[in-house]
Specification:
By secondary structure, this protein is mainly alpha-helical. It is built from 8 helices and no strands. Helix 5 packs antiparallel against helix 6. It is globular. The model has no long low-confidence stretch (mean pLDDT 90).
Length: 150
Amino acid sequence: MRFTNLSIKYGTLTEEERFCINEHIIHTIKMLDALPLPEEFRGVPGIATHHHENLLGSGYPRGLNKQQLSIPDRILAIADIFEALTASDRPYKRAKTLSEAIDILAEMVSHGKLDSDIFTLFIKERIYLDYANKYLDPYQIDIVDLERYL
């Protein structure tokens, strides 16, 4: 273990490790920009590469803000974060339960990072539960107090 590992302030990754993980978006941009997409799919590269942006403009890779992010961009941001939080195939973190993941999303909404209307729809329509029933381990599916978020 290097000394830098002992000085990590948040999470478990060093800056170098986080850069390597975040670099996937650069590869995504390059690959998608090179594809000869038909007209109806011309917006897909933007949506796919904006999934780490947030409404405050502090995301990456472009630092886009609320006015610059489309509705599909905002939807994918919530879906991507929810999937990442609940994924059980990440060696660097434990998979969160539904209630833990929803709490984290709600906190991000309260800080202005995620779209509150889309989050409300995600909760009201129980989209999180449809996903959970298809893809999550049973131990992750716990009770979500919907009233806290509506």
